[in-house]
Write a structure and sequence with these properties.
The chain is α/β, with parallel strands linked by helices. It has a single domain, classed as Uracil-DNA Glycosylase, subunit E (3-Layer(aba) Sandwich), CATH 3.40.470. It contains eight helices and six strands. Strands 1-3-2-4-6-5 form a six-stranded mixed β-sheet, with helices on both faces. The chain starts with a helix and ends with a helix.
Length: 218
């Protein structure tokens, strides 16, 4: 896992993403002007013995691209880690910096695209170029039983990667079992667009993680 993390952090394979992540790290957001941004590829994070994989989209420009850890330092992470804490998968409900003591038990968090993309929209070729990193992360998770897919992008990536044909339509709480026996669960992404509008509520995301924990139980 450390080798993969090192390679992710130093990858410069996508010129557009490299330029964007470094521009954001240099210009910063006013609220974080005194902080040093990570500004590199962001590897996955969590328990190497994870039975549950949480799959997002890509690092947030002023979240993980700033802190260096997925879903850390932004509103989406606030929702995600609170719910994981309530499900017994995280030791604390907050994630503000890479050294804040957050630990995951039985869970691993990552994304198909490792660099922050402009407008949160990676190009197909960027997605495909980054895919081997995700494949290697998944291959390291020998105990994997459940994948929680945060959003339709993650759902499509997971269905393709695990060989689900035909691909079921994405929806919150939708489940499908892969040929290898891993269960994929759809979950609306905890983006501000979804949480501010009420499309995703805390009971909704909690129900997904409660279900994932139940399916992953020995």
């Amino acid at each position: 896992m450390q080798r993969i993390a090192d390679e992710v952090a130093t990858c410069r394979a996508c010129p557009r993403l490299v330029a964007w992540r470094e521009e954001i790290a240099a210009t910063k957001r006013a609220a974080f002007r005194d902080q040093t941004y990570w500004g590199r590829g962001v590897p996955g994070f969590g328990d190497p013995q994870a039975r549950i994989l949480i799959l997002g989209l890509a690092p947030a420009a002023h979240g993980a691209n700033r802190t260096g850890r997925m879903f850390t330092g932004d509103r989406s992470g606030d929702w995600l880690y609170r719910s994981m804490h309530r499900a017994g998968l995280a030791n604390q409900p907050t994630s503000v910096s890479i050294d804040d003591g957050l630990q995951l038990t039985g869970a691993y968090v990552t994304s198909p695209v490792k660099c922050a993309p402009p407008d949160n929209k990676p190009l197909p070729e960027e997605r495909d170029r980054c895919r081997p990193f995700l494949d290697r992360e998944i291959a390291m998770l020998d105990d994997l039983r459940v994948v929680v897919c945060l959003g339709s992008f993650a759902w499509a990536i997971a269905c393709t990667g695990f060989g689900v044909r035909p691909r079921p339509k994405f929806g919150h709480g939708v489940e499908t079992v892969t040929p290898s026996g891993v269960t994929l669960i759809g979950c609306f992404h905890p983006s501000q667009q979804n949480t501010f509008t009420g499309r995703l509520t805390e009971p909704m995301i909690d129900s997904v993680f409660a279900r994932a924990a139940a399916l992953a139980a020995p």
